[in-house]
Write a structure and sequence with these properties.
The chain is an alpha/beta fold. It is built from six helices and six strands. The chain has helices at 16-30, 64-82, 98-101, 105-117, 134-141, 156-163, and strands at residues 6-9, 36-42, 57-61, 90-96, 123-128, 147-150. A six-stranded parallel sheet has the order 3-2-4-5-1-6, with helices on both faces. Helix 5 runs parallel beside helix 6.
Length: 174
């Protein structure tokens, strides 16, 4: 069963990291280390770092170099699974500060590849950009984040970009 990649978008201070933490803890509560492997990328070394002691957590990247190594490791896993290795263990990478990670062109390329092919290979991405600006996350959104949790954002244009709806169309709950 394929599960979606998830984008959690909101302005600074609106609870993105808390939402990611709750999702991660819920996944870990319901899945042991034999069925779930978690990779954390938190370049501000703040919110996700406290969770690195969970038995499901394999890597916790706090620097750009570590983030790149984590994404490269997941790309190797993706390639191995394409070649036919076992796909039963779900790998989920949680990325806090998505915009900081994708400033590196190599990281951007690796992440785009994971987003494009990962779901069918039991590799999922949960990401939160610090500033959900259309110019920052627009190119990643096209088909790759089917599940989106949107909190308070700075502009209606950013909200429209995140939700992928026309700026003047009514939205559920609006």
């Amino acid at each position: 069963q394929q599960t979606p990649h998830v984008l959690i978008a909101a302005a600074t201070g609106e609870g993105k990291s808390l939402c990611m933490t709750v999702g991660l803890l819920s996944l870990c509560e319901h899945n042991g280390p034999d069925s779930l492997v978690v990779h954390l990328i938190d370049l501000k070394n703040d919110d996700l770092v406290a969770l690195q002691g969970l038995p499901q957590v394999d890597t916790c990247a706090g620097t750009e170099e570590q983030a790149l190594a984590t994404l490269a490791k997941l790309d190797e896993l993706k390639q191995a699974r394409i070649a036919g290795t076992d796909k039963t263990v779900r790998h989920v990478v949680f990325i806090d500060e998505l915009a900081e990670v994708v400033r590196n062109p190599t990281a951007m390329k690796l992440l785009e590849s994971l987003l494009a092919m990962g779901r069918s290979l039991n590799i999922n991405v949960v990401a939160a950009p610090q500033h959900p600006l259309a110019s920052v996350i627009g190119s990643l959104l096209k088909p790759n984040f089917p599940a989106r949790l949107v909190g308070r954002v700075l502009t209606k244009l950013d909200e429209a970009e995140v939700l992928r709806v026309a700026h003047d169309q009514p939205r559920a709950g609006a």
